[in-house]
Structures are given as C-alpha cells and as structure tokens.
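Many introductory courses stop at the sequence. We go one step further.
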Amino acid sequence: METKNFLRVALLATAVSMNMTSCSNDDDNSNNPVINTPIEGYEWGADGSIKTCNRLLFTTDGKEDPDGRVIGNGDKEFIFTGKQTLKKGTYLLRGWIYVAEGAELTIEPGTIIKGEKESAASLIVEPGAKLIAQGSAKAPIIFTSAQEKGKRKPGDWGGLIICGRGTNNKGVLGQQIEGGPRTKHGGVDANDNSGILSYVRVEFAGYPFQKDKEINGITFGSVGSGTQVDHVQVSYSNDDSFEWFGGNVNCRYIVAYNGWDDEFDTDNGFSGKVQFALSVRDPRIADTSQSNGFESDNDADGSLTEPFTSATFSNVTFVGPMGREAFENTPDYINGGAMFPQNGSALGKYQAAMQIRRSSRLSCFNSVAVGYPIGLIVDAEKGATQEFAKNGQLKLQNLYFAGMGILGSDANKRYTDDLYDAASKQVLDASQESYSSTFFKAQTGNKYFADAADLKLVAETSLKGAQDVALMPSAGSPLLGAASFSDNLLSSWFEKVDYVGALSPSNNWLTGWTEFDPQNAEY
C-alpha cells in the first residue's frame, strides 16, 4: 500500500513539473499554444459589440496585467466599468477608452499618458462617470503625443472628452458628442459632478477621424458645476483648444496655446463661468473655417432654444498673430510651418478675437485682445445675436483691444468695417462703421488702441517656447488697476482682482506646471 501511494505521489509530482515547464516555455516554443489565463479581478462583459471590463491596464499585446503600461486592450473601442487608480508613471493610451456610467478613474500627480496615433487614442468620460485627475504645480498630469521628441505634431492622437448630466438646449442625452464617439450627454442637473481636472496638460490632440472632422483638445459635453476645472493647458490641438457643448462647469486658469481652429468655443447653452484664460496663437497655423479667439453659438441654426449659450468670461488675454514675425493673412504665409501634420487638415486664415453669433448671449469682462485681423464680429447671419446685444442680454465690457486690422465686422469671413446685413448679404451703408464697432465703443469701459505697444505688454522670459510673446502687463500698463466687477453677472464666484487680462506681475499663475515647448519636452 505504501509503495502504491508513493508511486501515485511521484507520478503526480512529475505531471505538475511537466505542466509548469510547459507553461514557462510558452513564449519560447512556437509549437505550444499560448493560453491567456484570466487574471483575478478582471471582469469582462459587453455593451453591444464593445467589450467592457472593470480594469484598464494591459500588456502591449493585449493581455491582462495589473501592472501593465497600456490603457486599453487594443480594440478600437473599450469600455471601462470599474474604479481604478493609475499610479504615477508613463502609460500608452490605445483606442477610444470610455469611462462608463458609475466608473471612476483616478490619475496620480506626475503621470504621463501618451496617446497612440494609429488608434486615434482618446479618453471619453461618459455621463455618470468620474475622472479624478488632480495634478500639482510641481507634478502636472500630462496627456501628450506618443511620437518621439522633435516629431510631435497637432493631431497625433484623439483627445480628452468629458461628458455629464448638466443642462443643454438639446435635451436629456439629446446630443452626441463631437468627434465620432458613441457618447450622448445632457441632463437636468446643473450641479452634476464629473470629477476633477486640475494641473493637467493636453498636447497634440485632434486626430482627424474623417476629413475636417477632429476631436478637440478638450471637449466638455453638458458638464455640471460640481466638476472642478482649473490650471489646464491645451497645446497644439488640431481643432479647437477648448469647446463646451452646453453645461454649467466653471473653469479657472486655463491656457490655449498654438491651436488650429478656435481657442474657446461655446455652444448649445453653455452657461458656466470662466476666469483667467490665456490664448496665444502660432501665426502660421489657422483653420480653413477661419480661426477665432471666441466662437460662440446658441446652436448651429441660431435658434431661440433655451437655455441660451450665456457663458460669462472675465480676465481673458488673447494674443493673436499680427505684430509677430512678418505676419500676413495669406495661404503663402499660413502654411503650418514646422508643425504642419500632413494628416489632411486644411489651413485657412485668421479672423476675429471674438465672433459671437447664432443667438449666443455670451458675455465677457475685464479682458484684452491683441493682434487679430478683426477685433469683434457680432454676427447676424443667423439668429438674434445683434438683437440680444441691443437689449443688453450680451455684454462686452471693460475690454481693451489693440493692434487689430479693423475693430469690427458684421459677418463671417468679411474683413471690412462697414455697416452690413449678414442675413441678406448686402452693404447697408459703406460710409458707416459696422454695428460691431459701434457696439464695442458704446459698451461700458471698452478701449481701443491702434498700436499694441500702448498696452505695455512684455514677454515673460521664463516661458521657454513663448519667451518672445508679449503677454504680461508691465509697470505703467493701462491694464493694471483697470478692472471692474460692478456688473451683476460678476457678483458671485469671480475673484475680484484689479487688473484687466489673464495675468499680472503679482499673479503669474503659469509658473511651474505649464509647457510652451512641448515638441521638445522630455517625456
């Protein structure tokens, strides 16, 4: 009996040993099939044709790995359903990664996430989900290109999309987010919370998934005011730098740097508040649709659907292309320069610091704009924007414009300051200035300087990559001490500072966490 038991034990040990040897040689022996054994904690499912999983990290060949450095399993679309923290490190984002309703993704400070070009990698936070991306001044969270230093270009990956259950004028889940993903957004909770986006950089986003259809640097879809957004820089986006489709989220300390299309685009009933926003343009990059600082619509048709786009901005600085290098608003000059991505994105011309149209009621205070072909377009081609302006429902006050080609125009793609009817496309009176110019001059506190030098803006030499851009008011600048917060729209939330524009010598909030030379940064 003892002999038989001994033989059984010996045979069993031999079998286990052979099995372990076989497994250990799987990667080296092409005659043995590789078995991807499920790892405990990875729970799989499906939402239609898209796989779902409660874990995000995988190996480069799509195997489950809690310590993996690839976000996504390699499928074109992948739905994350769990709660997970990405530890500080460098990761590759692969495919369109949806953070589904009820899921929560936390990213530790100092983390770098590189978007894969081949899969147009994008991170999409859906309504009811949360992204907790809380970086710091010393350790920002960086979403950037996966291309090597010196070869990064606009559109190297998709972008960052955050959607919520805030209000918009398309209804509850009534609008699919721009850029191609499946996600619909919108609800009735103005205070909805989609998480935290703080001390974050987004670079080289905007991959064109179709001709002239790109994801923005950061897209907000009906994001509620319970969401925290501050200290966020978008650089070299292949579309708009920031775009808000509805929602109520408030944002502070944001930077749009060398984007392709518009800097701050507001649509579909966005009613949030934004303070301390800086925009700097590359003179050789402009979109085929004409690039603006603000572009604001109530909706594409200019309908009178509520809630209206009624965002309130204060302390914005727009640094346009004019007065830098030997700028010309022509195709020969606007050629993309060294940053042209060769991805089908079409170049065009620069247009206005602010284009407000299609029944938008956007308001802006205590801001400065320099060096655009046109200062302001209050566009009446569609909708009732000019009527809202006349009725005081659109306020542009305490604005300082300087060094523009012309102060105002009344129509899109029209570079003439005369009284014009955009709806009928007729000149009403060539001897009179545009309604937009008249409106600008009549608003409380507005000032126009023909020469940008009169603003006494100087470069901030510590900003490598932008060290030659005049953006900081110096001693004696008329911007210092000129702010006013007396309007009722500014009565709450806004910080009451004494200067016009995004920056002052005593409040340089760019220090430490921003990057103005991302194509040469070491990641």
